[in-house]
Write a structure and sequence with these properties.
Blueprint lengths: L3 E7 L3 H11 L7 E6 L6 H6 L6 E5 L6 H14 L4 E5 L7 H8 L1
Parallel strand pairs: 1-2, 1-4, 2-3
Length: 105
């Protein structure tokens, strides 16, 4: 089976990111969820660090280089850990686990 990670990019909106984390953290299709804080200027990093587990990694980009830069940080993080796929999810989306399984099929 292919190893799948989910990458979520956060910038100054930990509340929305936490809602998505709460929705998907028990999805078995994801072996890892990588939350990238895109160098937020508020307390997002500290808030999100409280949600770190063996499955949820919270990392910070060195700069806010924009949407692509932040997501690429997360994708690289997953790739370096041997993941085959990375789903990039905006924090304000809602999806079911079956949707991801259907995409993999």
């Amino acid at each position: 089976m292919k190893r799948v990670a989910c990458v979520i990019l956060n910038y100054n909106d930990s509340g929305t990111t936490v809602k998505l984390l709460n929705l998907i953290q028990n999805y078995t299709v994801f072996e890892m969820i990588v939350v990238v804080d895109n160098n937020s200027t508020d307390n997002s990093l500290e808030v999100l660090k409280e949600y770190e587990t063996d499955k949820v990694a919270v990392i910070r980009s060195q700069k806010n280089g924009g949407y692509g830069y932040g997501n690429n940080c997360g994708i690289r993080y997953a790739e370096e850990r041997g993941f085959d796929y990375a789903l990039v999810a905006n924090p304000d989306v809602v999806f079911k686990e079956k949707d991801i399984i259907d995409c993999l099929d």
